[in-house]
Amino acid sequence: QKTLTDRIDRIEVSATMAITAEALKMKAAGIDLADFGAGEPHFSTPAHIKAAAIDAIEKNFTRYTAVAGIPDVRKAVVERHAADFGTNYTPEECVFTAGGKLAIFNAVEVLINHGDEVIVPVPYWVSYKDIIEFAGGTPVFVETDEAENFKLTAAMIDAAITPKTKAIILNSPSNPSGNVIPTEEVYAIVRLAHSKGIYVLIDECYAYLSFSGPPVSGASVTEAKDHILVLGSLSKTYAMTGWRAGFALGPKKIIAAMSKLQSQSTSNTATFVQKAAVAALSGDQTCVAEMRADYIKLRDRILEGFKTIPGLTCTVPEGAFYVYPNIKAFLGKGGINTASELASRLLTEAHVVTVPAEPFGTHEHIRLSYAVSADVIDKGVQRMRDFLAKLS
Ligand code: PLP
């Protein structure tokens, strides 16, 4: 008999985590890396958020809570969303989860049956494919055109819908490309899904890291509320990746199912993290704007650096903190034939950590997270330039 289940054998270890592990080993061996691998802010969690957690611990706020979260945190989530996007969720339409990833995982587990199709625009965040396949669903990939800045339109989604389509995943700003879906297209996709009875899973992980205008949520199309599931995260917005704080907003029936699943798995998110989340969501939002302003500067710096590397081209990201340069010019040189081989050689020979394109659904790119210091950007770009120049 097989030891492991078929469903665990359907998925892979998260590719970004694999690269991070390799980089950690090299760092532990004393190697100085220019690390653009991990997708997390280089900022510390803002002081008022940390203080709220410390205060909660000191007041012994450390016991079990309601599985879906304390009333205060659910209220804080819905009020933040209402203020920023004009939505009208109630606390019963909110579940607080141990990170945005768990919100996505639980949403897919309660919505997707064997054989259901889920539309996923390419390039996509690595985990969507595995999360859908773990549930027994089939990801249906919608290709986008790099020459058009990876632009996604409602017409492209429409063309991919079949009688088996159960849901669409939207992620804007995107990991890995930093692309932002035009607001009118987001709304059109949501209306399209609603008219066809398909759910839209809106991953708002980077919603507040949008550079060219105010943050956008498809959930602002409130008449489509029955088919919208907002999957949110505090990780990037408030530099809280390790705290594991995320949430879902959606129809009561789906939220109740997600809470039921959570009641048999993680139970509530760490109690003091919920208090910290209240401080983050209800407190002064200046920290978010400050970090965003810094990301814009870092984006500009790395794009300027890339201009000094002959052969490397890159779309201009309008959000998140990733660049997704095209490395086609270097394939077939120096024994490198794939993005994975390039990323691997960059790591071992140039000591630059990047993530290759394959797990994001493309072949000719690498992803770099520029949530690092300006010094790391300068050092990393120089190392890439030297390494890539030697290839030809
Ligand atoms: N969605 C996207 C697109 C992400 O890039 C990430 C993290 O990298 C997440 C969701 C999940 O973040 P977390 O589980 O830390 O909230």
Q: What fold name goes in the CATH topology slot of the largest domain?
A: Aspartate Aminotransferase, domain 2
CATH architecture level-2 label of the largest domain: 3-Layer(aba) Sandwich
The value of Rg in angstroms is: 21 Å
What does the largest sheet look like? 7 strands, mixed
Number of strands: 12
Strand-residue proportion: 5-15%
Strand order of the largest sheet: 2-8-7-6-5-3-4
CATH class of the largest domain: Alpha Beta
How far do the termini sit from each other?
51 Å
Q: What oligomeric arrangement do these chains adopt?
A: single chain
Mean pLDDT: 96
Output the CATH homologous superfamily of the largest domain.
Answer: Type I PLP-dependent aspartate aminotransferase-like (Major domain)
Helix/strand order:
HHEHHEHEHEHEHEEEHHHEHEEEH
The total count of helices amounts to: 13
Structural class, please?
A: alpha/beta
User: How many domains, as an integer?
Assistant: 2
The amount of helix comes to 40-55%
pLDDT < 50 stretches: none
